[in-house]
Amino acid sequence: MLAYIGLGSNLEQPQQQVRTAIEDIRAVTKTTLVAQSSLYRSPPMGPQDQPDYINAVVGVETDLTPHELLDALQQIEQKHGRIRKRHWGERTLDLDILLYADKVIEDERLTVPHPGIAERAFVVYPLAEIAPDLQIPGLDSLAAIKAHCPPEGLVPLENNQS
Ligand code: ROI
Asked: One of 24, 94, 109, 140 is an active-site residue; which one?
């Protein structure tokens, strides 16, 4: 199954957090990394008195179920010492399952497609970079969503090292 995962960090060397998280996702069992967006810098959505975020999106081909994939991602968050200070506040690493094939999932642990996709430039733009022709189950085409989603100060990092 093809799944897309959003990555975000704004604490403890965010670029490093996101880069090593991508390597950690690469190492997840039964899972192959098939696409990787640029890293982006984005102003915080939520309280403004927190640092800018580094965001990215990756695509994986996985034989894990959605909940097994979620378990694997939460393990990675734990390994990164996921600090989360307040609701909608700063965090060391956030990994979200954005899409899992064309499945619609709503239970206590998981909402897929991720409910915030359409409002979040820091998800829409990196996702469109790696999957421009995507259809979001229950929503519009990603292209249409992007057309209605202002970039909100999102900038790709010039140099994917810096
Ligand atoms: N804001 C940005 N720019 N990027 C994020 O990844 C992010 N994650 C969050 C909240 C606090 C909503 N704001 C964010 O969880």
From this structure: 94
